[in-house]
């Protein structure tokens, strides 16, 4: 009888622990990462990070409590009321930088090789951005509060072209351009009789 009681208690504790860990893990995953919100004070974009650990550990006791861990307007405005948290509470996925970029890259092609970017693998070869001066940058180099400005002025570029262009920019002495193939094709188009075998 005593063994059955202990077994029941153990099952209940395991169940409670499972529910608590699921709530903690879910809240942590939902609230981690950089976000872009509209600052209620300035009505301009601001980059913020939620204290995901705090949100996770308050999750088992009901609704996750949110507080900022970082903001692009700090340290000057560190004592603000954090009214922007309402935007994150109402749509945590919509303001996440990774999701904003995923939507922006959707159905776009690389401006250099014209290959579709397809579904983005955020753990491996992430696409990059190219500015009007043909300088490519990785999205992690862009501050979240500047994200919308950058997306309005930059073009999408695939990982392979980004690496090639970065190498070309940083090590120009090691790059050899071979325009002969294009020149040969142009000559053949102008003078078909110069093709071999004819």
Mean pLDDT: 82
Q: What is the makeup of the main sheet?
A: 3 strands, antiparallel
| Helix-strand string | HEEHEHHEEHEHH
Unreliable stretches:
194-198
Shape: elongated
Strand content: 5-15%
Instruction: Report Rg.
Output: 26 Å
Report a brief summary of the structure:
This protein has 198 residues and is an alpha+beta fold. 41% of the residues lie in helices and 12% in strands.
Keywords for this entry:
198 residues; alpha+beta; 2 domains; 3-stranded antiparallel sheet; 6 strands; 41% helix; elongated; disordered C terminus
Describe the structure in your own words.
The protein is an alpha+beta fold. The protein folds into 2 domains: 23-95, no CATH class; 97-175, no CATH class. It contains 7 helices and 6 strands. The strands form 2 sheets. It has a 3-stranded antiparallel sheet. The protein has a 3-stranded antiparallel sheet with strand order 5-4-6. Strand 4 (128-130) and strand 5 (136-138) form a beta hairpin. Helix 1 (2-31) packs antiparallel against helix 2 (52-58). Residues 194-198 have low confidence and may be disordered.
């Amino acid at each position: 009888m005593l063994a059955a009681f202990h077994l029941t208690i153990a099952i209940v504790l395991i169940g409670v622990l499972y529910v608590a860990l699921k709530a903690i893990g879910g809240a942590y995953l939902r609230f981690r990462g950089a976000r872009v919100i509209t600052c209620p004070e300035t009505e301009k974009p601001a980059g913020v990070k939620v204290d995901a650990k705090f949100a996770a550990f308050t999750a088992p006791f009901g609704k996750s409590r949110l507080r900022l861990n970082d903001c692009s307007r700090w340290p000057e405005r560190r004592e603000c009321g954090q009214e922007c948290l309402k935007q994150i509470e109402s749509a945590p996925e919509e303001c996440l930088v990774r999701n904003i970029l995923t939507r922006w890259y959707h159905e776009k092609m690389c401006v250099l090789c014209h290959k579709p970017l397809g579904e983005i693998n955020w753990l491996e070869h992430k696409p990059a951005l190219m500015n009007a001066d043909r300088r490519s940058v990785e999205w992690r180099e862009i501050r979240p509060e500047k994200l919308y400005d950058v997306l309005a002025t930059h073009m999408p570029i695939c990982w392979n072209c980004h690496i090639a262009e970065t190498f070309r920019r940083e090590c120009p002495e090691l790059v050899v351009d071979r325009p002969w193939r294009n020149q040969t094709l142009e000559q053949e188009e102008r003078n078909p009789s110069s093709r071999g075998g004819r």
